[in-house]
């Protein structure tokens, strides 16, 4: 009923071996300009400034998520039996397109706009002028809306929402394996094959057999280590803060760098599609020669990797002393000093506030992972203490 490609398309992938594409709608979405743009968006924002091989893109990750979803709907018998062919197409499209709305340098870009990347993703999918919308619409007129419903976690079939966004979803499983591989960090790995083999659907809920619980524990610990060692690395954050300082100053000034003018207002979909990291880098190069001294300094720091210094949990006396040193060196602390406060809950690899990983016990009961795993019980007992980190110009 739903058109397939003339032959199975295969794309080489370092994580999954091959990406397999059989449906024409998937192939058409992949070849849309909105999806091709993801080649020009780093998967890990500023992390490539710390782990120099982390140059992989949202494009590769999105294909990886699609491939895991494709395997789930075909290889996990309970999922295969629970979904119709059309529903499988819906959730595979959602896996492929889930990151369509990401701006340059990952999540940082959201600070420049009022929309989240999820909202922008849905806008692009529902916009009748985009190639990705047209590709979905050609397959079925209702497909764009169904894909958005999954991404917004409101599809009537909860299983499909869980596969894309939950504590144990295709998105997290791909980015952990891919990011560990691309950064050269072994502690982000876990047994994907075992997880898929022990995945079940009970009472309409995605769950794991109790015999697969240890693989899930490994997955959660992989998240813990990757967040601490990679995603929240202070030098990577330093690079992103430099970019934030640049745009905070630029958007409040009368300076005009043509490529950045669209950032002074809420961007249209067309402006967003054209805004990628190549365009950003060109703008920084232009800014490094502008008349404004502050903007020049920001731009050169970004281009030449002159990262900000950082310090954790400084006392108020230390903060004031650092600000005095900044002034003595000829810098304005309001432009070159940033204080960040975060709750340690941001670093937890697993909470049950958003969603629960369910375990199908040997007694044929559904129980939360926290009721079955001593490791998870210990993680949930971690204290939520307030942490402070300051960033400032290198003196």
TrEMBL record:
BP terms from Gene Ontology: dGTP catabolic process
Q: Which residues form a coiled coil?
A: none
Recorded superkingdom: Bacteria
Q: Where is the HD/PDEase domain?
A: 54-185
Extract the SMART domains matched here.
HDc
Give the molecular function GO annotations. Answer: dGTPase activity
Q: Which PANTHER family match?
A: DEOXYNUCLEOSIDE TRIPHOSPHATE TRIPHOSPHOHYDROLASE, DEOXYNUCLEOSIDE TRIPHOSPHATE TRIPHOSPHOHYDROLASE SAMHD1
The name this protein carries in UniProt is: HD domain-containing protein
């Amino acid at each position: 009923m739903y058109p397939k490609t003339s032959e199975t398309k295969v794309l080489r992938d370092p994580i999954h071996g091959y990406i397999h594409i059989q449906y024409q709608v998937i192939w058409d979405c992949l070849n849309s300009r909105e999806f091709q743009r993801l080649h020009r968006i780093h998967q890990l924002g500023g992390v490539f400034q710390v782990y120099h091989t982390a140059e992989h893109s949202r494009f590769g990750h999105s294909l990886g998520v699609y491939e895991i979803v494709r395997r789930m709907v075909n290889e996990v018998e309970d999922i295969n039996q629970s979904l119709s062919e059309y529903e499988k197409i819906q959730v595979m499209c959602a896996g492929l397109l889930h990151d369509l709305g990401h701006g340059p340098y990952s999540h940082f870009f959201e600070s420049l706009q009022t929309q989240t990347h999820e909202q922008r993703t849905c806008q692009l999918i529902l916009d009748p002028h985009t190639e990705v919308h047209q590709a979905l619409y050609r397959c079925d007129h209702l497909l764009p809306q169904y894909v958005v419903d999954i991404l917004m976690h409101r599809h009537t079939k909860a299983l499909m929402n869980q596969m894309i966004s939950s504590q144990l979803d295709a998105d997290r499983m791909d980015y952990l394996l891919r990011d560990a591989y691309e950064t050269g960090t072994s502690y982000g790995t876990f047994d994907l094959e075992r997880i898929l083999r022990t995945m079940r659907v009970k009472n309409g809920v995605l769950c794991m057999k109790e015999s697969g619980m240890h693989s899930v524990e490994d997955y959660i610990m992989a998240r813990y280590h990757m967040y601490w060692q990679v995603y929240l690395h202070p030098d990577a954050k330093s690079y992103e803060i430099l970019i934030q300082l640049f745009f905070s100053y630029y958007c409040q000034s009368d300076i005009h760098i043509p490529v950045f003018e669209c950032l002074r207002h809420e961007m249209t979909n067309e402006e967003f599609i054209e805004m990628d990291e190549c365009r950003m880098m060109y703008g920084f190069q232009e800014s490094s020669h502008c008349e404004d001294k502050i903007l020049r300094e920001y731009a050169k720091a970004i281009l030449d990797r002159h990262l900000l210094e950082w310090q954790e949990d400084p006392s108020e006396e230390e903060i004031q002393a650092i600000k005095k040193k900044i002034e003595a060196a000829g810098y304005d602390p309001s432009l070159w000093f940033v204080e960040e406060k975060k709750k340690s809950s941001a670093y937890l690899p697993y909470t049950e506030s958003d969603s629960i990983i369910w375990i199908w016990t040997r007694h044929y009961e559904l129980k939360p992972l926290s009721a079955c795993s001593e490791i998870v019980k210990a993680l949930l007992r971690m204290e939520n203490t307030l942490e402070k980190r300051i960033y400032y110009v290198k003196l």
